[in-house]
């Protein structure tokens, strides 16, 4: 196994309500991710109301895979993901609610990964 640095971005376009999900995870057999931080952002101005981004890590978006949340949907980072280990079929998820309609949402996962 080789250990490599991990800096993986992913994007998605939010719907007309400013809702949407960005996900990224190891896709190759035998690849394992060891994230140390995650950052999120979205385009546009700070939305009014209760715009939120929830971050999860695991097989699905669920209470037991919750990592962190922020009201700063234009840009925030968290190291609370450190210690998680992701295998193929598992993902880091950034679930945006109430952000800017049609905005581009971005998720970046950093850390290390092992590959066969």
Walk me through the topology.
Blueprint lengths: L1 E12 L6 E5 L7 E11 L9 E7 L7 E5 L5 E3 L12 E7 L6 E12 L1
Antiparallel strand pairs: 1-8, 2-7, 3-6, 3-8, 4-5, 4-7
Short description:
The protein is 0% helix and 53% strand.
The CATH architecture assignment turns out to be Sandwich
Number of helices in the DSSP assignment: 0
Q: Into how many domains do the coordinates divide?
A: 1
At CATH level 3, the topology is Jelly Rolls
User: Helical proportion?
Assistant: under 10%
The helix/strand order is EEEEEEEE
Radius of gyration: 14 Å
Name the structural class: mainly beta
Number of strands: 8
Average per-residue pLDDT, rounded, comes to 96
Q: CATH top level?
A: Mainly Beta
Strand-residue proportion: over 45%
Description of the molecule:
- With 116 residues, this protein is mainly β.
- The protein has a single domain, classed as Sandwich (Jelly Rolls), CATH 2.60.120.380.
- It contains no helices and eight strands.
- Strands 1-8-3-6 form a four-stranded antiparallel β-sheet, with no helix packed on it.
């Amino acid at each position: 196994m080789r250990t490599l640095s991990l800096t993986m971005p992913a994007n998605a376009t939010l719907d007309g309500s400013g809702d949407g999900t960005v996900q990224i995870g190891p896709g190759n057999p035998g690849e394992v991710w060891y994230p140390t931080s995650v950052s999120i952002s979205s385009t546009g101005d700070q939305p009014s109301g209760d715009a939120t981004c929830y971050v999860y890590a695991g097989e699905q978006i669920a209470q037991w895979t919750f990592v962190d949340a922020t009201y700063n949907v234009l840009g925030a980072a968290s190291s609370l993901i450190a210690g998680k280990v992701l295998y193929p079929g598992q993902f880091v998820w950034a679930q945006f609610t109430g952000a800017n309609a049609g905005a581009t949402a971005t998720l970046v996962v950093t850390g290390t990964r092992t590959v066969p």
